[in-house]
Amino acid sequence: MKTTTKIIIYLSILALIDMIIPIPFTALMLIYVILEKPAWFKTLVTEIYNS
Membrane-spanning residues where (predicted)? Predict the structure, then answer.
């Protein structure tokens, strides 16, 4: 599966969770990525820009 397809699926799931649970899960995930700088995020961004 292409990286862009995976990202669209993940973002759709996050959007559904945000609508069902009244906790801004996407915003919390963004704060986590900004503060912790996880390795999986860098890998994901690299895959996106290489494709």
Answer: 7-35
- Overall number of domains in the chain: 1
SS3 51: coil
Question: For residues 44 and 3, is the Cβ–Cβ distance under 8 A?
Answer: yes
Q: What is the pLDDT of residues 2-17, one digit of tens each?
A: 888 888 898 899 888 8
Q: Cα–Cα–Cα angle for 8, 39, 44, nearest 5°?
A: 25
Contact 14, 29 (CB under 8 A): yes
Give the range of the structural domain holding residue 14, as residue numbers without chain letter.
3-50
Q: Interior CA angle at 42 toward 37 and 15, to 5°?
A: 80
